[in-house]
Structures are given as C-alpha cells and as structure tokens.
Amino acid sequence: MAVAVPAQGHVKPLMNLCRQIAKRGIRVTFVNAQTIHEKIVAAAKMSGADEVEDNIVLASVPDGLNPDDDRNEPFKLLESLRKTMPATLNDLIESINTSNPNEKISCIIVDLSFGWIMEIAQNMGVEAVGFSVASMAASAIMLHIPKLLEAGLLDTNGSLKNGDEIRLSNDIPLWRKDEFPWSCSSDLKIQKMFFECVKEYKAADKAKWLLCNTYYELEPAACDLYPNFLPVGPLHQPESKSCSNLGSFLPADASCLSWLDTKPDGSVIYVSFGSFAAFSQQQLEELAMGLELSGRAFLWVVRRDFADGSPFVYPGGFLERVSELGKIVEWAPQNEVLSHPSVGCFVSHCGWNSTLEGVSKGVPFLCWSYFADQFHNESIICDVWETGLTINFDENGSIMRSKHEIKKKIDMLFSDNKLKENALKLKEMCAKSTCEGGTSYMNFEMFIDSLNK
C-alpha cells in the first residue's frame, strides 16, 4: 500500500514508484483522499487511459471535510486528513485483508511529509517504507530539523535565529535562509504550516527502508550524509505511453507532441511552472511578451488558475501574433515533451520533479523559482551543475521579471554551448544509474528483493 500527500508534486512521483514496483509483479494499493482520487481517475480517462496498469489498485479514503469546505485549500485538507485518516486507513487495510487473505497488506509506503502514518503501520504490525519526493539535499535539511531546533539555530516558525545560512557539511552547498524547503518569508503563518509538515521527516527512523527520488551521482555528498537512504531515481523512467499520465490531476494535451514534430531539433522553449505556481496578470503579460520578443518557437503550459487563481488574459493581439510561433496548452505530458529532440530550453519553477525530468533528458534550464526548496534547486542547477541560468527580477527592488530580461536570458542560453554540454553529461550519468548495474537500478532491485521475502 502507498499513501499519498494530496498535492500533485507528491502524488506523481509516488505513483511512478508504485508503477515500478507493480512491474515487478507486486500488487500495490494506491490511496488518496477522495477528492484527489476523483481528479486522478478523471484525468486518466480524459488522457485516454481507460484502465489502470496491472497490479495497481486505486483506492480512496474520505477527506473528513464538510460538503461546503474548500477542497483546494491544501492546509485545510492536510489538517483534516491528519485527524481522520488514522481511523479510515485502518478500516481500509482491514477491509483489504479480510476480503482476500492471500493478498494482505504487508507494507505501507509513506511519503515522509506524512510521517505520522508510520505510527499507523506500527500499530497494525505492518512494515513501513519512507519515501522522499524531494532532493537528497532537501531531505537532509528536513531530517536535520530536530538537531537545528535543539541547537537553537531555528525558531518555532523555522526561521534562522542568527545569520543567513546553514551548512550541513563541507561538501554540500550551503542553505541560505530564503532557500529552506519551508521558506515563505512573505507569510509567516504559511511558513509555519509548511514547517510543521516537513518536521514529519523525523519519523524516518521508524521505517525499515528509506527511498529518495534522486540518483547517487547527482548528489553524492548529500547521499553520503544519509547512507540509510537509497537513491532510486529518477522514477519517471521508463514510461509506458498508455498510462504515462497516471497520477496527474489534469489531462495532458498530447497534441503538443505532434506540434513539436514540426520544429527543428533544439529550437523550442518549453515553459511550465508545475501545478501550484500562480503569478499576477502583469507578470504573465511580461512573460508572454518576452517569449514573443525572443522570436523563437515556444510551448507554454498555462493552467486555468495561472493568474493568481483566475484565467490569464493575454495581451491584446498576442495569440494572433504568435499563432505560427507558439503552442499553448493547459497541461502537457512533460516527460515526453522533454524527451522530444526539438526542445532546447526548459523555463521552469525548479520543482524537484521537473528538475529531475529536465536533467534526465539533457535539457538546460532557465530558472524561475516560486517557493520552498525550488530556490535551492535553482542554486544547484546554476552554480553547481552549471546547466542553467536565472531569470532575475528587475533592478531597484522590483518584484517583476521583465520581458527584456526574459528575452535576454533566452538568447544567452541558446548561445551558450557549455550549458548544453553540461546538461548532456548529467543525462549520461542518469542513464548509467538507471540501467542494469547502475546505482539506482541496484538499489531498487535490493528493495524489491526485500519486498518479495
């Protein structure tokens, strides 16, 4: 059984892990809150996947909210599940165990942001596996929280009491205070809520196995800091096209793939900020005009709630002017897009899932971080791996990224062969890690062997 945190960036990598387990002949029950379960099922059907893969069973538990509660409010949903899931999950496990005595739940895979579920597994005498959807570097700082609190370096909101940075070891890039996975300096209430979630990583010591969606060669120092974690990523490889969208909340628009077929190799700018980021109308106008000014072909993912929760209103005449140049979709099959030879640049929020996908496909980044660990991922992309550039805010304290800065960085990236060379090196390292005999391959096989015993 696998239990998902109700957020797209958590559900998708956990689903990819379960799909890999299922391919080894092990049956997996994938549990979501009811509202998330319904989104996944609907999106899969709209994407053409009428059936779930063999050995994957989709299940749900009630979210505990009232009928008129806002189910798109993440912290309200998390708080409700924290109260109700111990009982509902226990009932679900007992129901599965009694319905088929030959297929009892023997193991629960727990997203470490839901670390409290470890106790449920313990109470039922079921082994627990901890899974981190973040980088190993971000996992390390979250695992360090108890020590940082004990040492008096952090306050109860997760803010540094003194100084501007923390270094966990000499071999790991330092963490600046505005790069913490729980950082939200503009709203301390939200930051405290994030901080409470990531503190759940302390439950890792209750797990029999600990897995991380990364590969050793990408983060050797961070992996060495916590050798009890098995790097088994990237877990999005390989995909079966029939179910590649399984775990997504939105149906993917595959028409963009045939559009990419018409473009020269390495020529297209792919722009996607994931499932959560939202920007002001004015900032999105600047992005639209920056893409137009670049004069390059672009594929842009624009969700319906992209403009601070509302649909984005394009600048006057924009859609007509770029009709031959650009393709706009509400959601894209990102793994397939980044695999396409025509894609030469990824404008990204630097979420870890997107970062891993871009790295594994050898695509250089234009970084536009939004919140949490994305800022640290951006620092690693630009300063350590040297596979990307930052799209900076305007000078004079502006909170805007201008169309001129966007065009400038696009031009710089496409003229910088070194960025592409570095990106291809990481792609090669990734391929070796996931091939037979590679580090991620061997770690995953070791884990599967333990499940089969």
From TrEMBL:
Entry's family note: Belongs to the UDP-glycosyltransferase family.
Lineage: Eukaryota, Viridiplantae, Streptophyta, Embryophyta, Tracheophyta
Entry protein name: Uncharacterized protein
CDD domains: GT1_Gtf-like
Record carries keyword Repeat: no
PANTHER family the UniProt entry points to: GLUCOSYL/GLUCURONOSYL TRANSFERASES (PTHR11926), UDP-GLYCOSYLTRANSFERASE 83A1-LIKE (PTHR11926:SF1412)
GO MF: quercetin 3-O-glucosyltransferase activity; quercetin 7-O-glucosyltransferase activity
The entry's keywords: Transferase
Keyword Transmembrane helix: no
